[in-house]
């Protein structure tokens, strides 16, 4: 069965410093992987996706993620955190065949001024 | 606005009452999904439709829950005889049927059962 693991449910970063959110997945097939962001009182928004093309994926708002098959990882990074990055971030794997999504438990990111 | 819309945004109901939520997907999307999110957790899959056909239901979807998509457009999710454990955010998403396409989410309906 496909699943994702996100450790560190709460992550604090100082404004202007790098952000790193870790995600490891398990999948019987070549996975499609996504990162979604959820701001308070707003819907889930797609940050970026990996679908077996380039392993380094660039997304919106300066985020990027690298797919590493050997490590079964899809970590999300951003060089410099901004106050507006404070939100909850979900790593997601798409289930082969029906495209339903399996979510990780999420990382709540706090940005310290 | 051409995104996924959900109605109502908030619902407070007494235990034992029935509630119904509506989701309007992006018009050209033939797949529609329902998820449930509780505090501190990621969304969990409930069910999905390909056009009007309900193709999969999670074990989370007890017999008190029913979902429909009668004409392959909007969908409704009904919960009968609500329980306090049903309190959660109910999210709807839609996508094209092609493999590996992303899902677009509505803002959700927050249900509180008192």
Strand content of chain A: over 45%
Could you list the spans of chain A in which at least 5 consecutive residues all have pLDDT below 50? none
Oligomer: heterodimer
Instruction: Give the tally of β-strands of chain A.
Output: 12
Order of helices and strands of chain A: EEEEEEEEEEEE
Main sheet specs of chain A: 6 strands, mixed
- Gyration radius over CA of chain B: 13 Å
Decide which structural class fits the backbone of chain B: mainly beta
Strand count of chain B: 11
Low-pLDDT segments, ≥5 res of chain B: none
Give the CA-based shape of chain A: globular
The chain-level mean pLDDT of chain A equals 91
Radius of gyration of chain A: 13 Å
Q: Largest chain-chain contact?
A: A-B, 25 and 28 residues
Strand fraction of chain B:
over 45%
Termini distance of chain B?
A: 33 Å
Profile the largest sheet of chain B.
7 strands, mixed
Number of helices of chain A: 0
Helix content of chain A: under 10%
Structural class of chain A comes to mainly beta
Secondary-structure element pattern of chain B, one letter each:
EEEEEEEEEEE
Describe this structure in words.
- The complex is a heterodimer of chains A (113) and B (114).
- Chain A has 113 residues and is mainly β.
- Chain A is built from no helices and 12 strands.
- With 114 residues, chain B is mainly β.
- Chain B is built from no helices and 11 strands.
- Chain B has strands at residues 5-7, 10-13, 19-24, 31-37, 44-50, 53-57, 65-68, 75-79, 88-95, 104-105, 109-113.
- In chain B, a hairpin with a 2-residue loop joins β5 and β6.
Q: Concise description?
A:
Chain A is mainly β and 113 residues long. Chain A is 0% helix and 52% strand. In chain A, the strands form three sheets. In chain A, strands 2, 5, 6, 10, 11 and 12 form a six-stranded mixed β-sheet that branches. In chain A, strands 3-9-8-7 form a four-stranded antiparallel β-sheet, with no helix packed on it.
